[in-house]
Amino acid sequence: MAGSRNPAAKAAEIKRTAKLYKSGAYIDIKAVQKSRVAQDVTKKQKKTTKRQQQKIALKKRLKALNLNMVNLLKFIEKVKVHIFLVVLVMYQWQLGLWAELIVI
């Protein structure tokens, strides 16, 4: 009963479950589990440890880095096309027919 919000209700629930168990009757285990979890005083969120905070920060950094990498790859592809077109226009007279072959 220690650590429960309502010790009398928890005791009654345990006695009721024990009686059903002895008689061989059906026990709804999910309902019993839900009742016992609801009785728990320590249900509030516990303070995160320093190690947990470090893990959370690392996950956030990796997620941000991954998003940046995806955007960076898209940007690089656009820049490659732009540079190719600029070079093609600038050196078209030098490349001549080679420019058409490079495009193909």
List keywords for this structure.
104 residues, mainly alpha, 5 helices, 77% helix
Description of the structure:
By secondary structure, the chain is mainly alpha-helical. 77% of the residues lie in helices and 0% in strands. The chain contains 5 helices and no strands. Helix 1 runs antiparallel to helix 2. The longest helix has 41 residues. The radius of gyration is 34 Å and the shape is rod-shaped. It starts with 6 loop residues before the first helix and ends with a helix.
Secondary structure blueprint with pairings:
Blueprint: H1 7-23, H2 29-39, H3 50-90, H4 92-95, H5 97-103
Helix pairs in contact: 1-2
**Helix and strand element order:** HHHHH
Rg estimate, integer Å: 34 Å
Approximately what portion of the residues adopt beta-strand conformation? under 5%
The best one-word shape is rod-shaped
Mean pLDDT: 77
Structure in a nutshell:
77% of the residues lie in helices and 0% in strands. With 104 residues, the chain is mainly alpha-helical.
